[in-house]
Structures are given as C-alpha cells and as structure tokens.
Design brief:
With 330 residues, this protein is α/β, with parallel strands linked by helices. 38% of the residues lie in helices and 19% in strands. The structure holds zinc ion. Residues 171, 181, 183, 185, 188, 190 line the site of zinc ion (ZN).
Length: 330
C-alpha cells in the first residue's frame, strides 16, 4: 500500500514552446519549489532535455532536496507522446524535434529518478479536474487558449485521449475555406484564436497601416513576440486592432467550443492557457456568451470557469503523473 516513496516530494515539468516550467510538490500537491527556464531554440531535443533537467534541479534545490530524492518526475510534453516507451515524436513549436526522442530515458539519467511522460494539455486538464476549477464535476473540457488552442477532455471521471490525439479542438473548422491555420488547413478555430495566428494577422494589418500600439508595447517590454500580457495591455488601452482581433478570437472560440460541447455535453468548461489565464473571468464569460447562438441545448449551457491553477497548472498536472501507482486515481 504505502510505498517507501509515497510521501516523498514529486517533480513536474511543463514543456512549452517558449518556456520550461518545473515544480516540486509535496504529498498534498502544494508547490514547494519552482523554476522557469527558456526553451532552447537550438541544439534539438538533447538541448531541450538538458534545460529541463537544469530547471528541475533548480526547483528541487529550492525545495531543499536533490533530484534523486524525488519520488519521480512527470512531464507534460507537446507532440506525439508515448508514455510506455518514454518517447516524444514531432513536438510542435520545438525547433529540431521532428523525429522520435527518448525523453524519459534522458531525464532519468540526468535526474536519477523515474520520469513519466504525458500530453501537455491533458495533464493540465487532469490537474484542473482533480485539484482546480473542475473539482465539482465528473465531466469537463479544458480549453487552453495560448499560442494555439488546445483541448483536454475528462468524461465520467476519466481522461479521454482517444487513440492518442483526442482534444485537438483548435482544428475544429469555424469557417469553411477561411484563414490558413498553422496546421496548414483552412478555417480552423486556431487560425482566428491562437496567439500565433493573431500575431500574424496583427503584423499584416499593421504593415497595411492599421492603427495599433501592440508593437510599441512589445518594444517597450523588450519582447519580440506579442505575448499575452501585451494583448492584455493593448485591450485595456482600447487599442482598435487588438480589440478587433480579440473580438474575432472570442467569436471563433464561441463557435468552435460550442461545436465540441454539442458532441460531448460536458458539465463544465475550464479556460486556461496564456491568454485564457491572463484575460481571466470576464473573457471566460464572453466565450460562454459567444457559444450560446451555436449551442444545441442552449437552455443548459455548461458552467464556465478560468483555470484555477493558473500558469503552474501544467507543471502541477505533470507532477500527478509521478504519483506511486497505488495512489493514482484511475
Ligand atoms: Zn488547424
């Protein structure tokens, strides 16, 4: 029953396109150490794995332990994740990661403890289901509104991963023959609501003379990309281009998420991701309103929430993977 390590702290790593977030949590899931490193853009998977190990080591030291004293380390990764083999193939948004890489073995060697891999969006959804805004419910849809739009599904208390790639809600079609998506297809929800697409459209409109402070704010902050905080600031200033693009994003999310809801009929929708967390409650409600015209059962819309675990949800969710099998919820 109680394994020798069941009370030991656990590690969790959220591997993102721009940052690696590592946490160490105690048995009660409270964060007792954390570190954030930029995701290397050169050196391929080996360099990314080394940066993940460095972030995890720093978080562990902050928690007052060495990494080999952790009960295990969970990883939420983009791309095609094979938890049994410990491999990740074609991790999107990570440069030079097209092929298969044995991330689990690499981390185990660097950290001296077991590594458990999972899908980034699904572990964040599981964290909200078990520890966050989804606790009162048996079914939910996690909508992660950031660089892209990801989705995680819990049905009747269990994660639904399909054959491995369920929950790709960003590629629900909201306009036949519409804008080109990062995936190469036309009219996906992500082509209107994903931050990468919104930035592309903002740059295009700016070049054509549209009035906006988005890029001025970006430069003031010493950034090269339109991060969530920049959109937030521009909206607060009633920037016309930012307002227009965000309005279109909300419309697209309304249509796309409502279409998913028409299929799944979940009790609640939890909105997370960089933009979702940054824009908060008011925008979760706006998405709910934008869903209404497209909901088949519009008399019973799902409850709308913002991800309660915020920015750390992905890493905390990853740490759930490192629980001893005897206490892991099945
Ligand atoms: Zn797409």
């Amino acid at each position: 029953m109680s394994g020798t390590n069941s009370g030991a702290p656990r590690g969790g790593i959220d591997l993102g396109g721009t940052k690696i977030q590592a946490v160490v949590v105690g048995p009660d899931h409270a964060v007792i150490g954390q570190a954030r490193h930029p995701t290397p853009t050169e050196g391929g998977p080996e360099a990314v794995a080394a940066a993940m190990a460095a972030a995890m080591t720093e978080a562990a030291h902050q928690a007052g332990v060495e990494t080999d004293a952790l009960a295990g380390v969970g990883v939420g990764s983009p791309g095609d994740v094979d938890p049994k083999a410990g491999t990740v193939t074609s991790a999107r948004n990570l440069t030079g990661w097209e092929g298969e890489f044995a991330l689990g073995a690499s981390l185990q060697e660097a950290l001296g403890t077991r590594a458990h891999l999972g899908n980034d969006v699904q572990v964040a959804t599981d964290a909200e289901f078990e520890l966050g805004a989804g606790r009162p419910y048996r079914s939910l849809l996690g909508v992660f509104w950031g660089t892209g739009v990801g989705g995680g599904i819990v049905l009747d208390g269990r994660p639904w991963t399909g054959r491995g790639v369920a929950g790709e809600i960003g590629h629900v079609v909201v306009r036949i023959g519409g804008e080109r998506c990062g995936c190469g297809r036309l009219g996906c929800m992500e082509a209107y609501a994903g931050r990468a697409s919104m930035e592309r459209r903002a740059r295009h409109a700016h070049k054509k003379g549209a009035k906006t402070d988005l890029f001025k704010i970006m430069e003031e902050r010493g950034r090269t990309r339109l991060m969530s905080g920049i959109w937030d600031r521009a909206l607060r200033r009633n920037d016309p281009l930012a307002t227009k693009l965000i309005d279109e994003a909300v419309e697209a999310l309304g249509a796309g998420v409502a279409s998913v809801q028409n299929v799944l009929d979940v009790e609640a929708i939890v909105v997370g991701g960089g933009l979702g967390v940054r824009l908060g409650e008011a925008f979760a409600m706006r998405i709910g309103d934008a869903m209404l015209p497209h909901l088949f059962d519009d008399l019973h819309p799902p409850a709308m929430h913002v991800a309660a675990l915020g920015d750390l949800g992905g890493a905390i969710g990853a740490a759930l993977l490192a629980r001893p099998a005897s206490v892991r919820a099945v």
